[in-house]
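[SOLVED] Need 3D model of a two-part complex

Original post:
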Amino acid sequence: MRRLYFHRDSERGVKGTYDWLAEELEELKEALEGKDKEATEKEFADVIAWLASLANITGINLEKAAIDKYNGKCPKCHQSPCQCTF
Amino acid sequence: MRRLYFHRDSERGVKGTYDWLAEELEELKEALEGKDKEATEKEFADVIAWLASLANITGINLEKAAIDKYNGKCPKCHQSPCQCTF
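Solution:
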């Protein structure tokens, strides 16, 4: 994603990229209501692509961030599977 | 994520899980405005965790969906880096 889109994402900036991501999340919502699995897969792909773009321009490694917080255990109860009672 | 949270996510359902995801995206927005990199990383982790949860309960493989659509090339112009002129 960095190689593909970093130059464009940087020009668009954090706010503009966030707004695109929020729009993609709305499209995912519509796809989920529509029950078309292939269309839903594509919307999931778009959301993760824009999330990766946003991470790239803010200098954050998305995969590392996820692993740091969710490293095989729930960050709240430290168990797997999660045993939280919220 | 599946192993950690699938039982809970399934009980919550698609709509409830989507709503959590949307809330996490709002928290990410606030974190991005706050300039605290560590807090922002954690919010990115939360968004991707909830996105993975949503994919799990809808029977979609998030990684496969992303690779199918963005396999090293822009899905619109088929170039890398993207050369779209939108």
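Edit: Chain A is about 70% helix and 0% strand.
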